């Protein structure tokens, strides 16, 4: 198991909590990620440990800005246009979106960053920093890699073919607990039915369904988008996806505050938690291509006519290719739900 790092020293842990206590993964991950001294409250932020689409290239924020402009047009260019950045990290996406917007649109945008960590020093004064999404949003609510960090319980099939809750200690040691029952059992039966083979595992995504329904439910008119590692019915991984990340590398998930703890998202279940006409499930590759990012190389003729422009275009093409790569960032799932507007992404 991974050792405790200096950033998760004894003083940072929940005071009085027994390190040998057995808990479900949901409770353990919640404390490790969001408790006092938790991973997401550390000063370096998520960018210190893993690279999201936001960190990979400013082209991603530019694409989200174009999506916001499309929502603006669909809403009739209102006097106030909301942009809500869920799980804003250190404000990288919302800052990039504001910078990429045309001046006339940026002047009407009310930007909100939703994040449990403290407001970063020097953040643009136009950005409101809050711990909960606002109500009656009219614009775009965008959740990039948020749902994968909404903690969930893990189920594993025992030798008798019964799905049981997986319990974990702070050092990452696991054992099986009680059989999955109630709402969790019903969720598994509908969205991730497990066979009788011993060792099969699943993450019980019900907390994510509820979190998404609540966040997207704040939208009065506009578009709600969730972007994440994802899977859908018919292609669930047989042994689950729970894992950890530390300093840019995947590692064993240990709920001691030393690493990120994440699992892929059943985006189809999230969509059903708030059923809306016009809901789309598509890959990031397809979504970004519809927003103008193709990854295609610039024409060679540009190299002679404008050498500096060709170099810039080539760099953009390389970054766009990374964002849309099918086996990488392009394979992320997008859940897109409009409220009171037509399809502005693929229509």
From TrEMBL:
Ranges where the record places region Disordered: 1-20
Comp. bias regions, Basic and acidic residues: 10-20
GO terms under biological process: methylation
Keyword annotations from UniProtKB, A to Z: Methyltransferase, Transferase
Molecular function terms, GO-annotated: methyltransferase activity
EC number(s) on file: 2.1.1.-
Enzyme class: transferase
Database matches in SUPFAM superfamilies: S-adenosyl-L-methionine-dependent methyltransferases
InterPro entries from the UniProt entry: NDUFAF7, NDUFAF7_sf, SAM-dependent_MTases_sf
PANTHER family, sorted: PROTEIN ARGININE METHYLTRANSFERASE NDUFAF7, MITOCHONDRIAL
Stated name of the protein: SAM-dependent methyltransferase
